[in-house]
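From the shared-data thread, chain only:
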Amino acid sequence: MVQVARIGSGASSNRRPFNVENVSAWAFGAIPPPMLVLMGVISLQVGAAFAKQLFTMAGATGVVALRLLFAALILLAVWRPSLRMDRKTLAVVASYGAVLAAMNVCIYLSFERIPLGAAVTIEFLGPLAVAVIGSRRKLDVVWAVLAGAGVVLLARVEGGLDWVGVAFALAAGALWASYILISAKLGSRTSGGSGLALGMAFGALVAAPLGIAEAGTALLHPAVLIAGFVVALMSSVVPYSLELEALRRMPPRVFGVLMSLEPAVAALAGLLLLGEALGAWQWVAIACVVIASVGSVGTTKPGPTDTGAN
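Structure, as tokens:
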């Protein structure tokens, strides 16, 4: 664990050290874990809506570059990770960062073309596919069919959606599935938030050339920099921190059910903050994907380690 401060050199040996984990536990300890997850989901999707408003100033890839850059700087300052690692760990960190950057670029390019709620709903097929493919239950076929029907309905009804935007959302979903698998490897080869910080930094390096090519010197405008910092906080630092604390205190299965609300929250954020009104059948389509995700996760039998807080 990374020490960020120590109070008094003569402190009692029984006193808990003042570090990142203890500070977060103190700050979030009074908040129920389900509320932490919901706060994280809301922060992420409100941040996405705010980011979309910046596209006219810095472009989609420019906003991604700023988001990853500021998130990396904050995480590096907090965790102060060591750069000493073996080649396999370096490969995992680099893969994590590359997938993270590509996933964000794809979903932001999707945001440019289709409503926020529609893009996130289609992207959500990625983690849902990981859950379904990893299961051998016949019931999961039902959830997969329901989710697929929801996405088809979403893309085709009431004027349909821009197919390029749909393609970018599908690509983001595939990358999200890869991200889940790589995250497990990252967690096994690094400790604390050091892997996340280094991976985020590598992702920023990957996204930077794309952002610079699209936005150029606009990325240096004070208003754009401030907005990019806010996006990084709302879309990366805050939700990751809240989710990490929630996972320490609740079963992963319950966490997954709550995260399934993300498409609906994204649709509401798009409606309230961007004026992206969806038709009745599009809301039905989003509901199909949410129900499929909740059903897939919620009907899974707890494993021997699914017992609650770690």
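Residues 1-18, 303-310 have pLDDT under 50 and may be disordered.
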